[in-house]
Design brief:
The complex is a heterodimer of chains A (169) and B (486).
Chain A (H helix, E strand, L loop, with lengths): L1 H24 L10 H24 L13 E8 L2 E4 L3 E3 L3 E8 L4 E6 L5 E7 L5 E6 L4 E7 L11 E7 L4
Parallel strand pairs in A: 1-4, 3-9
Antiparallel strand pairs in A: 1-2, 4-7, 5-6, 5-8, 8-9
Chain B lengths: L1 E3 L14 H29 L7 H31 L7 H23 L23 H33 L2 H4 L2 H5 L9 H32 L7 H23 L1 H11 L7 H16 L13 H13 L1 H16 L8 H23 L2 H7 L4 H25 L4 E3 L3 H26 L14 H29 L5
Antiparallel strand pairs in B: 1-2
Helix pairs in contact in B: 1-2, 1-15, 1-17, 2-3, 2-8, 2-15, 3-4, 4-7, 7-8, 7-10, 9-13, 10-12, 12-13, 13-15, 13-16, 15-16, 15-17, 16-17
The chains are: A alpha+beta (169), B mainly alpha (486).
Amino acid sequence: MQPVVLLISLILMALLSTIFLLAARASRGPGPGPKANAKRTGLIWALTILGVIVSVGSLRSWPHALASTSDALEVNVSGGQWWWDIDTTEIPLGKPVNFNVTTEDVTHGMGIYDRDLTLLTQVQAIPGYTTQITYTFTEPGSYQVLCMEFCGVAHHDMVNEFEVVVVEE
Amino acid sequence: MSIAIEPGAGAPAATAPQAGAIKVTMILSGAVFTLMMVFGLIMRAAQGQWIELDPALFYQILTAHGAGMVGTAALSGAAILWYFSGRHVVLTAGIFWAFLCLFLLGVVLILGAIFIGGFGGAWTFLFPLPALSGGAWEAGAAAAFMLGYVAIGVGFLLYYLELGRQIHARYGSLVRALGWNLILGREDDNPPPPTIVAAAAVTIFNSIGIILGAAVLIASLVHLLVPGFEVNALLAKNLIYFFGHVFINASIYMAVTAVYEILPEYTGRPWKSNRVFALAWNAVLIFVMAVYWHHLLQDVVMPPWMLVVGQLVSYFSGIPLIAVTAFSTFLYVRGSKMTWDLTSSLLVLSVAGWSVGSIPASIDGMISVNKVMHNTMWVPGHFHTYLLLGEVAMAFGFMAWLVRGKTISEMGTLDRAAFGTYLAGAAGFVTVFLFSGAASIPRRWAVHYEEWLTHDRIGTVFSVLVVLATLVFVVRFVTRLGRNED
């Protein structure tokens, strides 16, 4: 997803930057025409309609939806300064996994990275709460858990790993 | 091409006695901006393994950089708003000096907490991290840091009390100052100018933000003294991010008054309040307080409707910015035959940077995107865009205007070089952050993996350009302060 997000962002940012550049150059040209305010109204409507479409499209299925407990493997992850404890070292490929995440001290962020160091999903670990996310692994191999919320002097050392393995039915 | 005009023509006498206080504030702001940028450069160079930095010191510098940049953005924004509000209402100079003294007291406490006490809990002081350092700092250092925030917050509340009081005295009520007569189509022989509409809105939302910030600061301080005193960590996080989000946004909304008040000198078209402008500012008043939930999109125990509001408002709060502020800037500039000196170039750049920065911010505000972008380098990527190319550019544009004199001339060679260097450096710097975010590099990591070093090193080079251009802007400002107006 990240390359697509980057590409869309850079295109939109470049487009708006170009409009500003053209506007600055237009200081030497003629003044704004009588339809300027109608254009503004049109812009507001266009942005509103785009927002509604994007919002509905991106929220139709709830991004934090959990797999039902009967289908999913439950994995408990606990964090503390500066360690992760994962109660399962081998996770089956293709099966939904519900991660139940807790912390023993401060707020941490559990980020799951693949072998290419791409962030796949994350959730915050909040003192006094159990937070849950579901993820289904589609590639076997080693995965890392990195801390995504600043938690003190060894924040960058708060790393652990697990394996995703092919399980014969 | 050059034209002669009287800066601040038509300003009441109330402005003049406070120009000194404002100039002192802008000297301080320029100096601290420069120092904090050097801190940023050091961190990028350390992440790129060009210099060695102990992680404990890295996180102390990170804390100083965050608190220092947010504080200085707010300080410079407050100075700009005070200066231009003084054109429309009579403000008490003593209040500004008290505000400045409390701010400096806060700075001393914060710097002492960090560089003497070793506090490195980040500017966001996320509960209960200040009390649980793992041996890196003592409770006293955390307390000094938070007392520094309290001092600054008290100063800002004094500032807004005076601003709100004088706006009320001049315009009858904050509701009228927010432009409700314009919105409702009522007769108003004394409609609030854009600066006053902005001042009224910021006074309301930043006062609320600071009061809620004070609540969580006091709770955290009590927790330091009495560890058995429990605070709900999720509630504390909500309060911290409400305060933090509102406070940093207020700095931009205060500084934008420089655009409203200065740009008309160049375009010859006064920036006036109208119905759309008032509606936009009233929307901002609500949006800026409702949007902070986008900082908690991965706190999945939050009520889902709050996360949905966080996503929706992240997007829709961009509409007043792009369709009103940015679009109005296009209209004011178009065909104006304006002269492009350092002031006008920086101010138009600031509206562009602010608007462009809202794009990656809004996209990160989508829950599904946030799952893979939250707390990666994407986040400093977008906030540096609308701060470095937005608020800070507004502050530097205001500083250039303060020492411009009566004649407006096209940029000289040095100004052109500094502006170009700043634009290239800042644009490159933030773009590298966005690429790093897309590469999943986590933010706030003192030590980076080999795979990430290229990003860090390119970012370091761009940050050198930003520091060099900033040095020119600040030294230029200070050296011209003593000159007689031409």
